[in-house]
Write a structure and sequence with these properties.
The protein is an alpha/beta fold. It has helices spanning about 15-25, 40-50, 75-90, 120-130, 145-155, 175-180, 195-200, 215-225, 230-240, 250-260, 270-275; strands at about 5, 30, 60-65, 95-100, 105, 110-115, 135-140, 160-165, 185-190, 245. The chain is built from eleven helices and ten strands. Strands 1-2-3-4-7-8-9-10 form an eight-stranded parallel β-sheet. A two-stranded antiparallel ribbon has the order 5-6. The chain binds adenosine-2'-5'-diphosphate.
Length: about 300
């Protein structure tokens, strides 16, 4: 898995199509999408164009998608993946993830976690998809240490990856150590602090005060020292912590900037200053609380 990937959450249609072309031209080879992002068709169209034009072959790219928590039932896993593959115009994905450990049900105005669906049942179906060759690797997202431990005790195929929210204010040290000890890679979503989150919340008539990683003074000082941007410092920090990061941008200049993080290194002082910015769970942005009563489900929790 290339360490730096291109995140596509909240990117759609023409804007994603153009941006993804820029990203592939820039050199991104790891693309992150999901059933619930409703943009797999766009990703598929752009990939096909690059394959048809001979600019890339399938093996050049690492494609991740995820099963939607809204359709996550054991008897639907195969159909969901097949549908994602159809939209992506691919025979296999490189990585297929359980997007969230709870199946989300909406009836009328009520949203809650399905009481009888357990992620271990889903995992067994994910294993079948792996063995059938439709997913080179399988993994999870938004899983805590406890949940991964339970999965490890109940699986034939180990999860390859845990994709979680991770940025300078939520550094996930214990989780990263645990995953490293168990040979599980960590992918950081919202690595820049997800400044676009309120755009998502506004669909539900909500807003949230977001910690401002890109505008942080210490980050700015380190950026100045290396003649880099705050975003580049935030991404470089995650890479030096040994995790993969998938920044999202639909802005060509930023897409280029976010990929240009391999020609400098943060020194010990920089690393110590950035480590001290840790806030922990209070800085979590994507808490899924927008999905009503899912917080009452026994598997809710990070
Ligand atoms: P846009 O897509 O309009 O360029 P994250 O990956 O942490 O969720 O952050 C994504 C948000 O950060 C998006 O709103 C994106 O805006 C913005 N963004 C991405 N790259 C940069 C950058 N280099 N500098 C400032 N903002 C950025």
């Amino acid at each position: 898995m290339p360490a730096l990937g291109y995140g596509t959450w909240q990117a759609k249609d023409d804007s994603l199509e153009k941006a993804l072309e820029v990203a592939l031209e820039t050199g991104y080879r790891h693309i992150d999408t999901a059933q619930i992002y409703e943009n797999e068709e766009v990703v598929g169209r752009v990939l096909k164009k690059f394959f048809d034009e001979g600019k890339l072959i399938r093996e050049d790219v690492f494609i991740t998608t995820k099963i939607s928590p809204l359709t996550m039932y054991p008897d639907k896993v195969e159909d969901c993946l097949k549908e994602s593959l159809r939209k992506l115009q691919l025979d296999y994905v490189d990585l297929y993830l359980i997007h969230f450990p709870i199946t989300i049900v909406t009836t009328g105005r009520d949203t809650y976690g399905h009481p009888n669906i357990d992620y271990v049942q889903i995992w067994k179906k994910m294993e079948e998809q792996h063995l059938a060759g439709r997913a080179k690797l399988i993994g999870v997202s938004n899983f805590s240490i406890k949940k991964i431990e339970r999965l490890l005790r109940n699986s034939r195929v180990k999860p390859a990856t845990n994709q979680v929210e991770m940025h300078v204010f939520l550094q996930q040290r214990q989780l990263v150590d645990f995953c490293a000890q168990n040979g599980i890679t960590v992918v950081a979503y919202s690595p820049l602090g997800c400044s676009g989150y309120n755009e998502f919340l506004s669909r539900y008539g909500q807003t949230k005060k977001l910690p401002d990683a890109l505008g942080n003074k210490i980050v700015a000082k380190i950026a100045k020292k290396h003649s880099k941007s705050p975003a580049q410092v935030l991404l470089r920090y995650l890479l030096q912590l040994g995790v993969s990061a998938i920044p999202k941008s639909v802005t060509p200049e930023r897409i280029g900037q976010n990929f240009d993080v391999f020609d400098f290194a943060l020194d010990e002082d920089d690393l110590a200053s950035l480590a001290a910015l840790e806030v922990g769970n209070a800085a979590r942005i994507c808490d899924f609380k927008v999905f009503g009563r899912i917080t009452e489900h026994p598997n809710y929790g990070f």
